[in-house]
Structure formats: structure tokens, C-alpha cells
Model the fold of this input.
Amino acid sequence: MSEPTSNRVLFAASEAFPLIKTGGLGDVAGSLPRALQGLKQDVRLILPAYTDVLARAGRLKTVAEFSIRHHSVRLLAGTLPGSRVPVWLVDYPELYDRPGHPYLGPDGKPWPDNALRYTFFAEAVVQVANKQLGLDWQPDVVHCNDWQTGLIPALLSLQAQRPATVFTIHNLAYQGTFPYQTYLDLGLSPDLWHLNALEYHGQLSFIKGGLVFADRINTVSPSYAREIQTPEFGYGLDGLLRHRKAALSGILNGIDLKEWNPGTDPFLAETYNRRSLSNKAVNKSALQQNLGLQPDADTLLIGFVGRLVEQKGVDILLDGMKQILSLPIQLAMLGSGEAQFETAMSEIAVQHAGRVAVKIGYSESLAHQIEAGSDVFLMPSRFEPCGLNQMYSMRYGTPPIVRQVGGLADTVIDANDANVKAKTATGFVFSGELGTDLYKTIARACDLYVDKSKWKSVQLAGMGHD
Ligand code: ADP
Ligand code: GLC
Done:
């Protein structure tokens, strides 16, 4: 095989693990640059210098001082912890020196100046991309991710000479829309205010900057690439995406095999692999104990980790809860999100103490422990661009129960009779959007769980899956 050509890629993102993470975007922005580097690509990551990022980034060096909107800004250089990926941080404390969540303030609401924060970031990236800062490196490609980076392709389009741009849609539901007044306040070029640019029904749409102006658009699974061209999943942008169909592709995310490896995971009570799968039971009993669930090796323990929002199908779970609880199961849930879902789930945990445990919050360690200690992993998402948790869970010998959408449909093979017999099944797939559809699938998992040899073959198929 011939060596791939080396390109200089500037990977722009609003979060990247382990510096800062709110969800799968952070995982991908932390692992894809490393994987590309492994393919001999010359990749650099660029992020806003949020407080937590500065605290975790290790040694940093100021490599440029420049000005944006007459404010002086520093570009700091370091390395993504645990890797050799160079990281650049756009340091402007007034906008980024805020601890905790990158997008939300302490009141749980988006920072009121988010439009300015990500315009400012885009303007910094454009200066780096166009070699205006005297750095000895200029990208061939700028890889943008989600709405926070949407203005980058738009602003670059105004320049005579520019690198190529790629825009990845991790989630079309988040578009970065703001009132027209914000557009005026930001003083963006009037050339960008029209239907075929940033205007969206009279509002400013950041994501349109990526969808209209990037040379290539991609999303994180083949199914989602098709779905977003339909009104059901297109969130008002399906027409635009159909129009850009020739430039649009769907490429499945990969997972970080180092970070998510049951054989070496430091968060687990006991590590295990395909040959020592029986050690998984130690993690189940540790999880039951840690969460106050009844110690019981034989009851199917269902795990859930994720944002408690409609996307993740929490309402489908709630709709089916009564029926689901009539099955011999336990439920361990970790997540945070909309207050209505947090409250409803917490109440169920109180009513069914010992069988249902709900932790509201964010915990990297508990997320790993739930992946390892559960018997099945639940993801009944209404839509799912890719989904990483179902891939982690397959790797952890924890077959996922998923709804047949997006990346879930592309990654999980249903345990129907034929697939179980052929030893290709890796989880449980259902369609429909009623609680009873989910209930029937969990019942199917309960039935198969009793057949230890068939169950093990489903676990092993998932653990061996690329
Ligand atoms: P999404 O990006 O839509 O939230 P993904 O499945 O792609 O969904 O990725 C979610 C990532 O965020 C996973 O790494 C998951 O473990 C992590 N995660 C989500 N919620 C929590 C939480 N409450 N605590 C710890 N990790 C979480
Ligand atoms: C988004 C999507 C999720 C995807 C992740 C990484 O947050 O909701 O499905 O796995 O981005 O691409």
C-alpha cells in the first residue's frame, strides 16, 4: 500500500477530550486528530482557551499576539494531553475564562454572548488559516465541527486565497440561531446576509455558514447523511442539504480504543477481555453496590449514560416504564439535561429504590463503570447522528438496545434468531416510538439473557467488532 499524502489539517472545535467535553463531539475532537496523525497527516487542533482547558493543558507557550476587533488576543501552543497532537488555544479571557460548561452559564442557560464568543473564535481561526500571524504553518484544509465553527467557512469564503474547508455535522438539531439584531451587532459583512448565506428565516444561522460555504460537508454516519435530507430529520435544512448532496457524505465515527478498553480501563473494579469475560461480573456487583441496587447477579441490569434530552428517547423510556418495570430488570442511569426528565427519573428511582438508580450529573468514572457493569446498554434515541456509547458498550461486552435510526442502525446488528444462529448479532434493534416498542425489545433481551451460551456469543461478536 502506498503512503497517504500528508496534508496539513487545522481541526477547529469548541470542545475536545480530555481538555473539555460535553458529549460525543468532545470525544471525536479528541480522538480523530490523533487517528489522522497516525495516518501521517500533519494535524493541529484549535480551541478556545476556556478556564478548564487552561488548567488541563499542561505547559503552554505564547506563539502569537494579535488583534481581533481591536482587542488583543494570544495564541497559546501546547499538546493534547496523552498524545502528540499540537494544540492551539485562542486566549481571550473576557470571552473564554469561564469555568465549567463551555456553552452554558451557572444558571444552565446559554451564555448570552455565545454568538460573539464563537464569531471571535472563527475570526481567530481565519487568521491562523490564512497565515496572518507569522506562524510557520498554514493548513491545506480547515476541518470545522458543528455550529460553533460554522462561521469559519463563511468568513474564509470572502478571502481571495484560502485553504479548503470541511464541515462536519455532529448534530443538526443545534444550529446556533440568533436574532437579526445580533448579526448587526456583530458587524458581519452584509455580503453574508441572504438566503444563500447566513440568513435563515430572518435569523442568523451559524450552521448555515458551514452548510453553504464548506467545500465538503460530512456527517457522522451514512444513515444520518440520508436522514438529514428528509423533512423528518432535516430541522428545516433538508432542502439545503439536498441541494448540496454532491458535496455531502456520511462517515461513521470511530472510537478511541485506548480510552475505552475493558482490558486496561483504570475506572473498573476488575479489567477483562474476550478471554476473561467472567470478570465482568465483578463490575456488575461493584456497580450494584455503588449505586445502592440489590446485589443480584442474575437480574438483567440495564445501563444508560447520556444527555437527558428528547433526542435520547428519555420520553420513550418514561412512556414504557411501567411495563418495563414488570420485567425482571434493574436500571442504572447517569445523565443530566432537561429538568422535566431529571425530575421524572429521580422520582422513579425513589419509588423503586434497589431496582432503579439515577445519578444526575456528569461523571467520567461512573460512565465507564456503567458500560462495564451493566448487562445491556440502553439508547432508544429519537435520532442519533452516530452515537458513541453503543460502540463503547459493544466493546465492553454489554449489548446495546437501540432504536433503528442514524448511526445506531449502522452499528448494531439485531439479535434475531437468524443473526444469533450465525453469531453475527451484537445487540437489540427496535423501530417504533412507543414505550411498548421498547418494552418488547427489553423483554426479548431478558429472554436471551437466560440462555448463557447464546448471550455470550452476542457479547463476543460485539467485543470483536471493528
Ligand atoms: P451525544 O454526543 O449526542 O451526547 P454520544 O453517544 O456520541 O452522544 O456521546 C456521548 C459521550 O458523552 C459519551 O462519551 C458519554 O459517555 C458521555 N456522556 C454523556 N453524558 C454523560 C454523563 N452524564 N457523565 C459522563 N459522561 C457522559
Ligand atoms: C453528536 C451526536 C452523536 C455523535 C456525536 C459525535 O453529539 O448527537 O450522535 O456520536 O455528535 O459525532
In short: Residues 47 and 126 are 13 Å apart (CA to CA). Residues 23-25, 28, 170-171, 220, 253, 384-388, 407 surround alpha-D-glucopyranose (ligand 2) (CB under 6 Å).
